[in-house]
Amino acid sequence: MEIINKIGRRKTSVARIYMSPGNGVITVNNRSLEVYFPFDLHQIVVKQPLALVGVDGNYDIKINVDGGGSTGQAEASRMAISRALCEFDIEHRGALKKEGFLTRDPRMVERKKPGRKKARRKFQFSKR
Fold first, then answer.
1. What is the pLDDT along the chain (128 residues), one digit of tens a residue?
2. Residue 73: CATH number of its domain
3. Is 72 helix (H, G, I), strand (E, B) or coil?
4. Residue 119 domain-assigned (yes or no)
5. Is 26 within a domain?
6. What are phi and psi for residue 108, nearest 5 degrees?
């Protein structure tokens, strides 16, 4: 039984997955997918690569996710699952690449600068 280990990232979230052939059980931080991501949209995002290539329910996936918010964690998990699917079958790569699931989203929060209120917001100017 082959187990694939991959990492996906989004913003400050990091998702490490362990994927093996099975019956479609997805656990996130030792909890079921529905418990960890109660919002339906996040569950759909995590399952997108599996549904796209038509292997939904064929793999058991254990996800360890850390950092960031729920959307970033869901998208990091999606990237890791996509990378693992490519390793199981190289034929999936074209479809996943076309949807953008294999591309690392480089957008990060801009750091706060000294002498400013936020990253770009200046303090209110007072003439008198």
1. 688 999 999 999 999 999 999 999 999 999 999 999 999 999 999 999 999 999 988 999 999 999 999 999 999 999 999 999 999 889 999 999 999 999 999 999 999 999 999 999 999 999 98
2. 3.30.230.10
3. helix
4. no
5. yes
6. -130, 165
- Note down the domain range covering 50: 4-99
Q: What is the pLDDT of residue 128?
A: 84
Domain assignment present for residue 24? The answer is yes
**What is the total count of domains within the chain?**
1
Q: How far is CA 51 from the centre of its chain?
A: 15
- 32, burial (CB in 10 Å: exposed 0-12, middle 13-18, buried 19+): exposed
DSSP for 12-34, written as a single string: TEEEEEEEEESS--EEETTEEHH
Distant-in-sequence, close-in-space partners of 42: CB < 8 Å, separation ≥ 6: 70, 71, 73, 74
